[in-house]
Amino acid sequence: MVRGFFYALNLMAAELNEKAQILDQAGIQRAVTRIAHEIVERNKGTNDLVLIGLRSRGVDLARRIAQELKIIDGADIPVGTLDVTLYRDDLGRVGIQPEVRKTDIPFPINEKRVVLVDDVLYTGRTIRAALDSLIDLGRPRLIQLAVLVDRGHRELPIRADYVGKNVPTSRQEQVQVLLTEEDGVDGVLIVKG
Amino acid sequence: MGLARKDLLRMQELTADEIRLILDTAESMKQVAGRDIKKVPALRGKTLINLFYEASTRTRTSFEIAGKWLSADVINVSTSSSSVSKGESLKDTGLTLQAMHPDIVVLRHPASGAAEFLAKQLAASVINAGDGAHEHPSQALLDLFTIREKKGRLEGLKAAIVGDIAHSRVARSSIHGMRKVGMEVRVAGPRTMLPCFIDRLGVEVFTDLERAIADVDIIMMLRLQLERQQAGLFPSVREYSRLFGLTLPRLKGAKSDVLIMHPGPLNRGVEIAPEVADGPYSLILNQVENGVAVRMALLYLLAGGGQAA
Amino acid sequence: MRILIAGGRVIDPASGVDEVFDLLIEDGRIVRIGKDVRGAEPPEASKGKRSKAAKNAESAINVDRVMDAAGLVVCPGLIDMHVHLRQPGREDKETIATGTLAAARGGFTAVCCMPNTDPVNDTRSVTEFILDTAKREGAVHVYPVGAISKGLRGEELAEIGELFESGCVAVSDDGRPVMNAELMRRAMEYAGMFDLPVISHCEDLHLSGKGVAHEGIVSTELGLCGIPSTSEAAMVARDILLAELTDARLHIAHVSAAESVRLIREAKARGVRVSCEASPHHFALTEEAVRGFDTNAKMNPPLRSESDRQAILAGLRDGTIDVIATDHAPHTAQEKEQEFDVAPFGVIGSETALALTLTTLVASGTLSLNQAIAKLTSEPARILKLPKGRIAEGADADLTIFDPDREWTVDTSGFASKSRNTPFHGWRLKGGTVATIVAGKVVWEA
């Protein structure tokens, strides 16, 4: 799932297709709050907790979760950005290499409880790449996964620990996550075709 | 986006956008150097052959490290240790290599046009690591990266390239690269070492070092090859150094925050005084460091093969 | 063998003829030029003691072959004053057999082969070897050019007297210049005794240095070592002055630079006995052909700038340049498929010269058809003092028949030459050889 250029194209194409909104702004907010509570519960607090967001929207979500954690627990949880392009399993096969962006994790991850944050969980390949990348960066104590939407169709044995909403989809559909930080508006849409 | 080409042969054919892409990608690659585990799997299973017909520690090692950090398998072939020295033609060497299916071949060769020649023979991507006096694109790119890193921008900066311009592939590549990103370029050297019509490449030409470096942001010194004296291009190292050597007193005429660069290896005391080479405005070691990052970017961008999906 | 060439446009610059005529060839000579020769009266001066009626009958009926030349041009057999046949020594590149066949395919009926063979043609034995081989295997007339200096080393005079006696029509060290002015002076004086023209490859090797291409914008951009125009012009100037000193007949080979054309023009105005030639690649191409490092555009002297090319066109137009000669220089594919610096200098030219002349010079109006043919026939014949290059009753039947309108694409796979090193592969040209007749025999036809 390559964002950027192809995503924009799809957005334009999607404008012409059917769209169904499955989460609105309030729904996203509730999901973020719930995930934050679940993180605190599962980890029995926020000690040694760090959030690492994938791609652009995963990072925005991670920051929102961090804000919630501050409210819930009073803690300042560090947020990092991870670019997994160099760990993808489809490099050198697609012709034009995808753009490599910056990884910015300005804190050590050894012995930390890392919660990876992404917007949509689909085949699981992106998360596999993220795991390999994190392990090359250090040795976390554990890695958990939080996603806003799980749309099914896993191709690898990967599961999320925290899910905002389970949305069964067909392969022909696309899930679009819009966040105010990037898109000016909050919402999750399913687009046919 | 992406580099939609099979080979990287010369700066002359790159667009400003492609240059920016390479520099941006190099920034991301530079982070790998700072990690504990200096390896990413991006080029896993790819084979890179360094085919060097001219001795070079710096460039070859740089490409080797770049390939290895990207998890590629790197093989070094150098002239003396191979059938090349037995008189095997470049064409035959190319065909022999082709039969071994490398993904990328990095070539350094004393004849201008050699990289292009090899690129036509091979399905592999060919990176020109220096062909005769023609081009050395990865050097020009790492120089641009280094300048951008230090100055935060490239457009509008003034650079002076000083030395044996006629025989310098670094000069040619730099002139093309710098002009494309919007820099002003001057060249300076003895009249005997300035090629005809060089001004047509869009540069200002000087035979006086002090006038050339007045008010520039970057001074790039080129290595003087002592064999050129045999060819009658300058009378003595002493005179060359007196007229064109970069010393501290000479720098007074340049901007106070001028940056000094040199593609290496240095002739200390000839084209550049040791105090200048080791001084606070010298970027010479940064250039070397950035060489690996830029070459990683090139290997990564070309490894896709260049054809659109 | 009697051949009738019927209805062709006969162009003979030597006599000024340009008209549709029939030509009757017998026993290697042109015996009749006229209108409707087939049914005509026999000529007044006829040989043999047969009865008039019998002769009438014969000439009216008995022809072994009729060649229909309607719409075609018939001109004197073209003469290429400058080719490299490579035999003896480099038969892998070309032989006298293949080189002359290539010449015939290009419409040439005579070639002058240069002495830079291996061994060098600086003795009777090599000259005779060339002539014998040409007689047995050559498709066209071969006129050897003997060496100026022994081994082309530029140190001592070769035995020019003996070379003259063995059949050389000129002397040259071509391939190399004669760097030593004193030697060149003596060579001009000595060759003058035999009225042999001295053909000079003008190049100052010091100025050329390690150059591989014209010193200009392309060599600067490509980082190639350049050969400045002055390398040629300086020697042209020197040789012109030496020719003045010695009253020699000087012929300057493969002129490529504007300065050379200017010097020759001025020398001719002064009355110096200098002539010169230009090659098709120099009037059809410039240094731009070297971009991409194509070794099939590498030759010496190199392809120069557009202003040099324009000077050559002007020189052809105003007669400063007398002759078009190919400097046909075959090289094997393996030698040319190397790095530009290393590949040998030289391109072939026999099979494209006429078409390039017609396409680039005549079609553009630089030369009239008559002038163009002169530069390939009567002019070289004049300079070499050969009884060739003209169409007249009694003259040798060396003829070229070509179609001035036929368009074709150059495809080296069909070439008769052993080598393929030409920059013109794939070019669309207008004008092609239809038949080449040497000594009354058709040695090649399309």
Account of the 3D structure:
The complex is a heterotrimer of chains A (193), B (309) and C (446). Chain A has 193 residues and is an alpha/beta fold. Chain A contains five helices and eight strands. In chain A, the strands form two sheets. In chain A, strands 3-2-4-5-6 form a five-stranded parallel beta sheet. A three-stranded antiparallel beta sheet of chain A has the order 1-8-7. In chain A, helix 4 (125-137) links the parallel strand 4 and strand 5. Chain A is globular and about 45 Å long. The two termini of chain A are 15 Å apart. Chain B contains twelve helices and nine strands. In chain B, helix 2 (58-69) packs across helix 12 and helix 3 (90-98) packs parallel to helix 4. Chain B has helices at residues 16-34, 58-69, 90-98, 114-121, 137-151, 169-180, 209-213, 227-230, 237-244, 248-251, 274-277, 284-302; strands at residues 47-52, 73-78, 104-109, 125-131, 158-162, 184-188, 204-206, 218-221, 259-261. Chain B has 309 residues and is an alpha/beta fold. The longest helix of chain B has 19 residues, at 16-34. Chain C has helices spanning 52-61, 96-105, 124-137, 160-166, 181-192, 205-208, 217-222, 229-246, 258-270, 280-284, 306-317, 333-336, 353-362, 369-376, 378-384; strands at 2-12, 17-26, 29-34, 65-68, 73-76, 78-83, 108-113, 141-146, 170-172, 198-200, 213-214, 226-227, 250-252, 274-278, 323-324, 399-409, 428-438, 441-445. In chain C, strands 1, 2, 3, 4, 5, 16, 17 and 18 form an eight-stranded mixed beta sheet that branches. An eight-stranded parallel beta sheet of chain C has the order 6-7-8-9-10-13-14-15, sandwiched between helices. Chain C starts with a strand and ends with a strand. The mean pLDDT of chain C is 94. The A-B interface holds A 4-5, 83, 85-87, 91-92, 94-103, 132-133, 136-138 and B 1-4, 21, 24-25, 27-29, 31, 35-37, 39-43, 46, 70, 103, 300-301, 303-309.
